[in-house]
């Protein structure tokens, strides 16, 4: 199964990326995902179910440790198979 996760971390800072946002970027870029799009107001990543779910677990743990007070995410099934 293939999944797409969309997420944001808060609080926002329009002047400088907060530590939790930088950590989120590091986590998804280091994960074994097929596609990653990181932006100032939202982020998406796609891949096989195991890779996405592992990345989401790591993401939640690390961004909360880095000061995020809220994480909003949505996970969608986008296809069958690993690729």
- As a percent range, the share of helical residues equals 25-40%
Which strand order spans the largest sheet, edge to edge or round the barrel? 2-3-1-4
What summary fits the major beta sheet?
A: 4 strands, antiparallel
Taken in chain order, the helices and strands follow as: EHEEHE
What is the rounded Rg? 12 Å
Oligomeric state of the chains present here: single chain
Cα distance, first to last residue?
A: 8 Å
**Average of pLDDT:** 93
The total of beta strands comes to 4
Query: How many H/I helices?
Result: 2
Write down the overall geometry. elongated
Low-pLDDT segments, ≥5 res: none
Strand content: 25-35%
> What class would the helix/strand composition place it in?
alpha+beta
What does this 3D model show about the protein?
The protein has 83 residues and is α+β, with helices and mostly antiparallel strands. It is built from 2 helices and 4 strands; from the N terminus they run E-H-E-E-H-E. It has a 4-stranded antiparallel beta sheet, with helices on one face. Helix 1 packs antiparallel against helix 2 (49-65). The longest helix has 17 residues, at 49-65. The mean pLDDT is 93.
């Amino acid at each position: 199964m293939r999944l797409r996760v969309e997420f944001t971390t808060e609080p926002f800072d329009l002047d400088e990326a907060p530590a939790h946002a930088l950590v989120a970027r590091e986590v998804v870029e280091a994960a074994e995902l097929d596609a990653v799009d990181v932006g100032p107001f939202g982020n998406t990543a796609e891949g096989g179910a195991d890779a996405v779910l592992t990345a989401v677990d790591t993401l939640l743990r690390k961004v909360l440790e880095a000061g995020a007070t809220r994480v909003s995410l949505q996970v969608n099934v986008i296809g069958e198979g690993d690729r």
